[in-house]
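Document type: protein sequence-to-structure record

Subject area: structural biology

Format: plain text, a pair of labelled lines:
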Amino acid sequence: MKKNVAIIMGGYSTEFEISIQSGNVVYKHIKDDYNAYCVHILKNKWVVVLEDKKEVAIDKAEFSAIINNEKITFDCVFNTVHGTPGEDGHMQAYFSLLNIPQTSCNLYQAALTFNKRDTLSVLKPYGIPMAKSVFYNKGEVINEDYIANQLGLPCFIKANRAGSSFGITKVYQKKDVKKAIEIALKEDDEVLMESFLDGVEVSLGVITYQGKIKVLPITEIVSETDFFDYKAKYEGLSKEITPARITKEQKIAVSALAKKIYQVLNMTGFSRSDFIFHNGKAHFIEINTNPGLSEMSILPQQANCAGITLKQLFTDVIEQTLKDKK
């Protein structure tokens, strides 16, 4: 008997459209093996969207829906919500209370990794190379001199809890610090400021596949814009080269570092970590626990390079999630 799988997508952040693209790709690749349902998690409604575009409301008390006069409950949730509430621990906590297994990491790991500042603080004692950083909270006095002296210029100013490069600015002049902070505050009331690392940018998927931690082939990011921002990611203004054009020694080093971070953070499911080779050494930038899953997204590109089809990738994480519940 086929299992009922809810693919949650959308979310409450500016990433909701990208999330829906990811969720629809998952649906396409698993619908023959499971009773798959597209569930849109939006601020004003939670609904199952059927193939005829009809919407059926979700009963939030138990995460169920009445479809064709039948009550549908779910054996597993495939979490493709980028940003809040799917990547920050809220949905993980909700499904944990309902005892419904879901495919992404657990609630603590989700909350921790969604907070860039806290993630850096946890990883620093393990000797993970990273940029210099300064923190800012909404309402504090902005000291441009201090920021420039600590980080140098240019530097990056970004929203602490946001994805897809929303709320990020590369700042070249001290006079532009305040404006960059204001842009970041539109996404979050916490701001992370980091020194600029000049070098080759790479991204690595680290996943649990067939019960084991697997580091996927490395992708090199070549942006046509000033940095790998939203336009570069989603409007074709970048080249994503898999496998990356780096040395064998660099591949070994950054793969080991990405795996170490996955293990230190006690991750499960899918992840994608970003690094910059600065002065020959890989420096950690951030980790994403619900990375994009469209055919052209980085993680699927890497899986394909490793000989893993999207159907294999998606069904494996579902089966592992169901197995872990037992």
User: Anything to note?
Assistant: Residues 133-195 form a domain with the Dna Ligase; domain 1 fold (CATH 3.30.1490.20). Residues 103 and 318 are 6 Å apart (CA to CA). The first strand starts at residue 4 and ends at 10. The two ends are 17 Å apart (CA to CA).
